[in-house]
Design brief:
The protein is mainly beta. The protein has one helix at residues 3-18, and strands at 24-30, 34-43, 46-53, 61-72, 79-93, 100-107.
Length: 108
């Protein structure tokens, strides 16, 4: 019975590994609310990423701008990254009569 998940994982690896090569990419983000993400390669192993979460469903607004440096593990496309950036976040405060929001800004 364990062979089915193992076989699925082995068949999925080539698609995951090939997904790491891009110059410009965008996509949907699913976390505590929905959002969009854009990434652009700015140097050989460096990318800049913009994450936008408008707070459509849960009311949690977030904007983040990140710079990442990628490091190869097994191949050029299988890597890990480290980075830093700035963010701004607004989270609604519930349980009070007047709607308010807690705001936070900072560095990652």
């Amino acid at each position: 019975m364990k062979t089915i998940p193992t076989a699925f994982f082995i068949l999925l690896i080539p698609f995951v590994l090939s997904a790491q090569k891009y110059n410009t990419i965008g996509g949907l983000r699913i976390g505590d609310d929905f959002g969009i993400s854009f990434a652009q390669r700015i140097a050989n192993k460096s990318t800049i990423e913009l994450n936008l979460q408008p707070g459509t469903f849960a009311g949690r607004q977030m904007t983040a701008l990140l710079v990442k440096q990628h490091y190869s593990l097994l191949t050029k496309r299988f890597n890990f990254f480290m980075g830093a950036g700035a963010f701004s976040r607004k989270i609604p405060v519930s349980g009070i009569d007047i709607p308010q929001q807690n705001s936070s800004q900072g560095l990652h």
